[in-house]
Structure formats: structure tokens, C-alpha cells
Amino acid sequence: MSKNQEFRIELREITKVFPGVIANDQVSFKIRPGQIHALLGENGAGKSTLVKMIYGIMQPDEGQILWEGKTVSVTSPKAARKMGVGMVFQHFSLFEAMTVLENIALGMDASISQSELESKIREVMDVYGLKLDPHRIVSTLSVGERQRIEIVRALLLEPKLLIMDEPTSVLTPQEVTQLFQSLRTLSATGCSILYISHKLHEIKELCEEATILRGGKVVGECDPRKETSKSMAEMMIGANLKQISRAADRKFGAMKYVVNGLTQPGEGDFGVALDDINFAVRSGEIFGIAGVAGNGQNELLLALSGELPVGDGKTILLDDMPIGDLGTLQRREAGLCAVPEERNGHGAVLDFSLTDNAILTARNRMGLANKGIVSNGNAVAYADQVISSFAVKTTGPGSRAGSLSGGNLQKYIVGREIMQQPEVLIVSQPTWGVDAGAAAAIHQALVDLAANGSAIIVISQDLDELLSICDGMAVINEGRLSKTLKVGEVSIDEIGLLMGGVHGDPFATAEMSEAVHAH
Amino acid sequence: MLIELQPRKEPNRLMLYLTPVIAVLATMLAGGILFTLIGHDGFGAVREIFITPLFDPHKWQDLGIKAAPLILIAVGLAIGFRANVWNIGAEGQYVVGGLAGTGIALATWGMEGWWILPLMCMVGALGGALYAAIPAFLKTRLQVNEILSSLMLTYVSIQLLYYLMRGPWKDPDGFNFPQSRLFTDSQLLPEIIPGTIVHLGVPLAFVIAIAAWFVLTKSVFGFQIRVVGAAPAAARYGGFSAKRTIWAAMLIGGAFAGLAGIFEAAGPFGQMVPQFPTGYGFTAIIVAFLGRLHPIGIILAGIILAVSYVGGEIAQTSLGLPNAAAGIFQAMMLFFLLATDILVKYRLVLGPSTKTGEAA
Questions:
Q1: CB-CB contact of A378 with A366 (8 Å)
Q2: pLDDT digit string (tens) for chain B, length 360 residues
Q3: Pair A499, A294: CB distance under 8 Å
Q4: Contact residues on chain A for B221, CB-CB shorter than 8 A
């Protein structure tokens, strides 16, 4: 054994340049066999580009990758897998209508028989404690179970290095615990793990070493177990974290937005039906809706915002006025604004200028159009106002929405709605893929809007976010909404159970939610 | 060394305007070579088709009356194309518009009055719109692809034309020729420039194109068309109905094609004949794209395609080229335009593929 071989993989001064941006600038780090190594950084820090080069999807412009002491050139994902690198992506590539076994068989480089594959899968699942029925259809599985398919798929190749890209963003707290157990078992067998995340408490819990990236450069290395979340966050964003300022003695006014027995069929084969949803939000209150992705959040947003009106108007009341049967246009006139989860092509048109994107939703409330004719002057002025009030980094209202970074575009979209001073604001995933600085600004703007008497509904998968800004919250699971819980009195474990710790078994879920409500 | 396409960060504005020019030049070059290879005077053909009509003042009036229907139809189609509504049956709407107007002409035969011609035009536009309403209905109610339904309805309209010409609408004094009565003075578009064949429909087509430019760039309706085409989900979020947009786009496209139809019948033809469908409805698709779906660009593109029509006729007599030659040049123009359009969003890079490899 030579000296070099004490490292499974070593990156030496890796540089990758894209037109207009240096994605990675002389990045170096090493991972030992069996080590769980965190790659930490904000969105856009260059984490994804770096792992894409390790996995052979891209090639570095400069620098070397050493695998077990030898310089290698990873030309394709197939070459990477052959070398012993496995990867679990943030977005899964699974066929919904096929079984677990079929999905795994499709992703194999080598061809082996179904029965042989099945016994191998069962073996891997036994060793690492991953529970999964190989014969279930993927569309019936929860997100956590789907992720297990991807993990099993990677583990079947007996990797020496497993890359996990933001694996917990779609999991319930209980599923995260299970995942961590499996990963620890895996590392004990000598497999190295490169764990990519921006969730600091998870990294503290799981990882032994961390490399922190900012703006494509390594800005620090640390042992997460010896750091505080705050110290790592400050390394990550390179500045002090701002605390949200909120009045402690918040008072709520009259009922602003009431939903009574909202029931909607799901769209298409895989849409989620909404089943008897009830909640009410008062003036000045921020109400959170938690849940694992794909449990009806999209359908709920469309129904609440008016993109898919409900048959009976009285199902949704705004200031006691029935608005359920109205479309988005009339609901906006009544004082309801919304921000959908997806920025690209839903909240904004990427090929349009910021000015045109202002016209998209603010034309009537802000007088950007009059008698069917667009007032370009007013639209530019309003876009400018949003840009300066929300510190959106852009060259001006004329720039294309697609040229903005995700965080900046999100600030612009949220700002565009907030500055219309809505009576009710519905926001889905307000800080999804947004850096910490922009997230703090968005949270502060929501809190300030509520302080002025608006009612706000936040749909989010990020529990930390909901717990930090909401007054009340509920959990959505398979299209049903739990009773309203008071933030500050409810524990993360309880929320986690409601989010579907017993996912797939409606009876158990119902029992569980009664148990949580009973106390 | 490999040629590679690299995505541009922003669409290149210069290329956006340059590619139609490149496409026309490439068409001339490739067409010249092609016709030389098959034994004609290829570059002579290019000269006759693209250059001669522009420098022969006697041909300018021909350019005007050929450009007018192309521009009118293409502006209507461009509104749909911008909204991702693919009405390619403008030829059929043009025929039905012409027939509807002819119906009024035959019903008012022998009468006089200033109101007859406007009524014919209105009914012509209405006929085109109603014919386009069929694919709009099928699309919005049953999700039938409008490309197929509008195209197939074109052939139905041509059969309808043949039936009317050979049967009910045949000129009783026409020695059994399959054609309608000649329109009377109250039913014909007046000449705008005395002594030429330039009729009122020509300036009207230009005026309508400029009006469409205003509506598309300044109105909320124009904004709606663009949003629905660019991002349907964002359009719904912004309060624009996709179904209403489909209806509006189809009806406008049909009305403009129908208007072009009755302008042709009450203009150059002066009656309805079985040779009425001349392919303007299909050529207008090329005009719309060559003009970048922009009404002002469409005016220029309409003139270029009119040049190729007129030039094709010149080349027939002077070089003995077949009638199809002009059609080949027109089709090549669309081909090269679509091919060069990739340069708007991508740049060509020479280099080994490993260096610049992009994520899948």
C-alpha cells in the first residue's frame, strides 16, 4: 500500500469555467475510505458542477482527479460507475407506471436475469435496512421510498464512493433518520460518502468532515461535529446571518380567508385529489401548510389562487365574500395574490423582460394597463420599484427574467406580489433554491406584510422555514389537511408523523393524526 | 475537430434579424447550384426569380397584388403561431372566405349600391372565421390537433369549390364552363392607381398589418397572445384563458384568410373559378416565419415571396423553367430559415468535444 492510497478520491485544483461564470475555481479536497464527507454551500456555490465532474457528466477544464492514488479521467457516468462511483440525484429518474424491480433493471449497465436481480436487491436491502417491495408500482410509492430505489440502484454496483445530492429535501424527519442509519451502515463497510447539502443540523449529525464552497472556491474545511450551525452558515454565506425581526405581541384581526370543505379531483393519472380541506386565516396571521412533496400541494395552490376555480363559490371566502368560483383575475381584484412553487414558466416567463413579467400579474391592481392598452411607462416604473425595494440584482427592468439567478428571480416574483399590497397572499415554497441572504429578505417581507394586516398562507416542505415564520400550521398528506396546529406548542416529531411517517397506510395515518390531536 | 453547438446565455439579437437574410442568400446559392446540376442555367434562374422583378417597374404592380394576400394571411397566422396555435389550413379558410363573398355577389347580382362590396368583404371574413372555428372547436373541446384538422379541411373546401363551380353556381351564360358569373362593377374592388391592376385590397393589407403590429405590441390582448405561446402555465397564473386564446387566434387567422380570399375574388379574378386556390394560404406560412412573426417583418417577407412568384413566371417564359421552380425556391427558403434559426440560441464552436462537453 502506497501512501497515496489512504485516500479514496482526491481532487486537485479543479477548475471549470462556463460562459460568463467560473463554476469551480481550483477546488481541492480528499476523502478517505469509509468517510462521510460533506460538501456544503449555498445554491450556485458550485456543488453540483463539482459532483457532475466526479460522476463524469462534465469534464474539468483544469486540475486532476485522483482515484485511489492514480490520476484518472472520468469521461462518462458509465466510466464513473465502472470505477466504483455511485450517485443518487436530487431528482429521480423513475418510470411511474413500472415496478421497482423493472425500474432497477432498466438502469443496470450489465444484463442479469430478473430473479437473480431480485435476490441481489433483497440482499442489499437486508444489509442496509432499506425497506422496499420490489414488485410495487412506483406511482404508489412515497418520495422517501422512491429515493430508496435510487439508493438500491447505486448500491447494487457495490460502489466505493456514493454521492448523495440534497437527499433529504423531500423526506420527512423520520425518513431522514432511517436514511442516516443506512448511510452509517454503508460507511462502516468502507464505502466513502460525499454528502451534499445546505442543511447544517443534518451535516452536524452525519458527517465527519466538511468542505465549504462559496462562489466556486473552497472557503473552509471543518469538522462539523465541532462547529455550530451558525458558524458553518456564516462560512457558507460569508457574512453574518440576519435574524428575522418580529413583534412578540402579535394580534390577529378578523377572519380574512376561510376554506370550507374544499374537495377537488386530481388532474390526470398521477394528480392528487383534494379531500375536504378546511382552514381559516386571520388578518395579520401567517399560516403554514407543511407536507412532503406530491401530497396535493400543487393542487391546493391552484385551487386557493383561482387557477383551477372550485365549483361552489362559498367554498372559499375572502373577507366573507365567496370567491371559490372566481378565476385568478377576479380573485386578484378582490385582493388575493399568489406565488406558485415553480418560478420558471409559471411564476415568471423566462423569455420576457422583468417589465413584461410585472404586467403578467400586476396589470390591473397597479394600473399597468388601461382599457386594454398596456402602459409601458407605468410597467417599467413598477418593475423598477420592485427591483429597488427587494434589492433584486439585475441590470434593469428590461433584462430577461431568465438572466436572473434563481434567488433574484424569486425575490422579484415575491416582491411583485407583495408590493400589490394584497389582502391575502398565498406563497408556495417561497425560498426553494434560494440562498440564505435572499431567503432572509423574503421571510422578512412576508412578516412585514402580515404585520400590516394581510393574511398569509405559506405552503412549504421546509419545516424550519414554517416553524420560524408561521403562527399556525397544518400538514397535508395525500390530499387531506390535518387540524390546525399552533406553532410553538407542537413538536417536530408530531409534525413528522402527520407528514406521512406511516405513509401509504391511510388508516394508520388517520389514527396517528388523531393521536397527535388528542393531547 | 468537431463543430459543436453551444447554448448562448441570451438569444442573439443580431442573429434574430440576420438569419432571414442568410436564409434568402443561402436559398439563392443552393438553388442556383441545384438547377445548374440538373441542366438549367441555375444562376440565370436565380437572377430572373429574385432580381428581375425588383428592377422592372412594369412588374411592381404584380408584386403588390401578390404580396397583399400573402401579408394579410401571414399576419393572421402569425398571431396564432405566437400563441402556439398552429393553424396551417389558411388555404381552406381563404377558399371558403372567397366562396362566402362570392355567395353575396351572386345573391346581389344585377343590383347596385355602395353597400354590396363592404358586405361581400364582411361575409368573406366571416366565412373564413367560421371555417377556422371548426378546428378551434375540435381543439378546445376534444383536444384534436389543429394542425391535422385545419390542413384536412383545406381539401374539403377545395371539393366544395369544385362542386359549386360545376353545379349550383355555374354561370348560366358561360357556355358550360365551370365558373361563376363575372362580378359587376358594384362587386369589384376599385383600382387605386388608374391604369394598373392595383386594387383597394393592396393598401388595405398594409394598413391591417400595421394595425396588427400596434395591437400585438401595445395591447393586453397582444400580451395575452405572447404569454400563452411562451408559457401556458404562467398565462393561466396571469389570468389568461388558453381556450379563449385558441379561439381568438383561430378566428382572427380565419377572418384574415377569408378577407384575403374575397379580395382575390373581387380583385384579380373578378369572379370565382376552380383555379382560385393558388397556394397563398400555404406560402403565407413561409411569409410568417420569414417575417419573424412580426407584422412589419411580414410586410418585407411578403414582398420577397411575391418577388419569387412573379420571378417564377418570368423564368418560365425567359428560361423555360417549370412552374414548380418558384415553389422549390420558396420551400428552400423555409428550410434554410429553420436551419439557421438555431444560431439565434446557439453558437457554433470548433473544438474537441471533450473540452466543452455539456451536461445532459
A1: yes
A2: 577 777 776 677 788 888 888 999 999 999 999 989 988 888 888 998 899 999 988 889 999 999 999 999 999 999 999 999 999 999 999 999 999 999 999 999 888 889 999 999 999 999 999 999 999 999 999 999 999 999 999 999 999 999 999 989 999 888 889 999 999 989 999 988 888 889 999 999 999 999 999 999 999 999 999 999 999 999 999 999 999 999 999 999 999 999 999 999 999 999 999 999 989 999 999 999 999 899 999 999 999 999 999 998 888 888 888 888 888 888 998 899 888 888 787 887 776 544 443 433
A3: no
A4: 372
Do the Cβ atoms of A346 and B221 come within 8 Å? no
- For residues B229 and B78, what is the distance between their CA atoms, to the nearest angstrom? 11
CA–CA distance, B278 with B157 (Å, rounded to integer) = 13
| Maximum C-alpha span of chain B | 78
Question: What one-letter code names the amino acid at B197?
Answer: I
Within its chain, how far is the Cα of A493 from the centroid?
20
The rounded distance, in Å, linking the Cα atoms of B122 and B258 is 9
Backbone angles phi and psi of A267, in degrees to 5: -85, 130
Q: Which among B10, B218, B221 is the nearest to A400, CB-wise?
A: B10
Number of C-alpha atoms within 13 angstroms, CB side, residue A156?
23
Are B340 and B347 within 8 A, CB to CB? Answer: no
What is the Cα gyration radius of chain B?
22
> Which cell numbers hold the place of A341?
412553487
Residues of chain B neighbouring A75 (CB-CB closer than 8 A): 354
pTM: 0.79
Question: Scanning every residue of chain A, which has its alpha carbon at the shortest distance from the alpha carbon of B227?
Answer: A349
Distance, in Å, from the CA atom of B232 to the CA atom of B75, rounded to the nearest integer, reads 22
Q: What is the ipTM of this complex?
A: 0.83
Average pLDDT estimate for A439-468: 91
Comparing alpha-carbon positions, the chain B residue that sits nearest to A346 is: B234
Q: CB of A16 within 8 A of CB of A61?
A: yes
Going by C-alpha positions, the residue among B239, B252, B247 that lies closest to residue B288 is B252
Choosing among A330, A349, A409, which should be mutated to test the B contact, i.e. which has the most B CBs within 10 A? A349
Q: How many helices (H) and strands (E) does chain A have?
A: 17, 23
Instruction: Give B359's contacts in chain A (Cβ within 8 Å).
Output: 52, 57-58
- Are A39 and A83 contacting, i.e. CB atoms less than 8 angstroms apart? no
Q: How far apart are CA A123 and CA B23, in angstroms?
A: 61
Of A57, A307, A400, the CB nearest to B236: A307
The Cα–Cα gap between B189 and B302 comes to: 21
Contact A20 B227 (CB under 8 A): no
Q: Tell me how far CA of residue B88 lies from CA of A137, B80, B265, in angstroms.
A: 42, 10, 21
Question: Closest partner residue to A349 among B221, B230, B360, by Cβ?
Answer: B230
Per the CB < 8 Å rule, is A403 touching B221?
Answer: no
CB B118 within 8 A of CB B138: no
For helices A143-155 and A173-188, give the axis angle rounded to 10 degrees. 10
Q: Residue A403: which of B10, B226, B355 has the nearest Cβ?
A: B10
Do the strands A192-197 and A209-214 form a parallel or antiparallel pair, or are they unpaired? unpaired
Q: Which residues of A touch B219 (CB under 8 A)?
A: 372-374
Distance, CA of A67 to CA of A79 (rounded, Å): 12
Residues A350-365: pLDDT tens digits? 999 999 999 999 999 9
User: Does A332 contact B239 at a Cβ distance shorter than 8 Å?
Assistant: yes
Q: Do A332 and B6 touch (CB under 8 A)?
A: no
CA dist A133 and B186 (Å) reads 81
Paired residues of A217 in beta bridges: A214
Residues of A in contact with B227 (CB under 8 A): 349, 352, 360
Contact A20 B9 (CB under 8 A): yes
> What DSSP designation does A46 have?
S
